[in-house]
Amino acid sequence: MKKECFKIAVFAGDGIGREIMKEALKIIKIISDDKNINFQLHEGLAGGCAYDHFGTPLPDSSLQLARQSDAVLLGAVGGPQWEHLDYSIRPERALLGLRGSLGIYANLRPIVAFDELLDASPLKRSIVQGIDIMIVRELTGDVYFGKPRGIKQGKNGKRKGTNTLVYTEDEIRRIAVRAFEIARTRKKNLLSVDKANILETMELWRDVVTEVGRSYPDVTLQHMYVDNCALQLIRNPAQFDVIVTTNLFGDILSDEAAMLTGSIGMLPSASLGKKSALYEPIHGSAPDIAGQNVANPLAMILSVALMLRYSLSMPAEAQLIENAVTETLKEGFRTRDIHQPDKKLVSTAEMGDHVAENLRRFLN
Ligand code: NAD
């Protein structure tokens, strides 16, 4: 069998990051052994733990490691012990540094409702059943970066706040291409969300996405205004396949959509850059449960699946990891955050072991 080699930067981070990363590494080892793939795992420090060692949340050695890797796996960063620090050296700055250094421009958040966890959603079972949405959020433009920005004192003595919505054609084209490519690997339906009825920049967004769509005749492209999309996500989320949208709208819609599944410990994410990419669960370091072996490792394990699919061209293995997670839930194993009375309560490490066991079975 062909031997392949991938360099992966591993930043477990703070709080539950270390516990859930251990489980993710178990899964990588199984794939590596079975497929004879050499995953070179290089562990580094990022976040509060890096601050404690180096006085900075993202030392140069970690930045170099991230830059030279095929992909970066991150647990979570932050915690109350670092909250007194200046914003410039808080653990969370490590995320911005990593994103910047990897040239990350697309955030992917899959929103999948597992049949076994439908009752965890605040919405009715009949509404969330079967949802499988991929939200592709642009990360480099919009009001977050546009200039001018700031709060100024006016001549009348009253303050005025300004942020500027800016998108270049190239930024829109780049994210649109990424979204069409992803749609091609799924049900081939892409929805572009904008506010083209009010904002000129959004008119440009719609034009460019439509132009890009001409190169993807196999993908059905539709457009929707963001206010309608917010409503439709609650009314009938099962209608969506891939959604591509701007930085601001994506920020809000992806959190709204995350709530559909009702369990933060289940949701992975991918942030894709020019050459490398960062994979992490959407949740934080959960200091309230850190060190207790009760955290749910599934979002972290599902982030490994995304890494295999989007950075390492191993979609079949990614699917097997996802199947192993589904099977483990079917068998009734639950960590505390998703536990129901008739299910089997397991620890972080036990949950990882059950997924690993199912993965081994599926690989054989
Ligand atoms: P959080 O996501 O860490 O926790 C919110 C709630 O969800 C807590 O009750 C926690 O116990 C629970 N939870 C989260 N992940 C879980 C899991 N895998 N299994 C079981 N329960 C889980 O958000 P927070 O409490 O607002 O933030 C805590 C720290 O994490 C802060 O320092 C924050 O800045 C940081 N943070 C980091 C990231 C990141 O690293 N990407 C993201 C968000 C927050």
Molecular structure report:
- The chain is of the alpha/beta class and 364 residues long.
- The protein contains twelve helices and 14 strands.
- Strand 6 and strand 7 (159-162) form a beta hairpin.
- Helix 6 crosses helix 7 and helix 8 (226-235) runs parallel beside helix 9.
- It is globular, with a radius of gyration of 21 Å.
- The mean pLDDT is 95.
- The structure holds nicotinamide-adenine-dinucleotide.
Brief synopsis:
The chain is of the alpha/beta class. It has helices at 17-35, 48-54, 60-67, 93-101, 125-128, 169-184, 200-213, 226-235, 247-261, 298-310, 315-330, 348-363, and strands spanning 4-13, 37-43, 71-76, 106-112, 132-138, 150-153, 159-162, 189-194, 220-225, 242-245, 268-272, 277-281, 333-334, 344-345.
N-to-C series of helices and strands: EHEHHEHEHEEEHEHEHEHEEHHEEH
Bound molecules: nicotinamide-adenine-dinucleotide
- Given helix and strand content, the structural type is alpha/beta
Averaging pLDDT over every residue, what do you get?
Answer: 95
Number of helices: 12
> Could you describe the largest sheet, including whether it forms a barrel?
10 strands, mixed
Neighbour order of strands in the largest sheet: 2-1-3-12-11-4-5-10-8-9
What portion of residues is helical? 40-55%
**Cα-based radius of gyration, to the nearest Å:** 21 Å
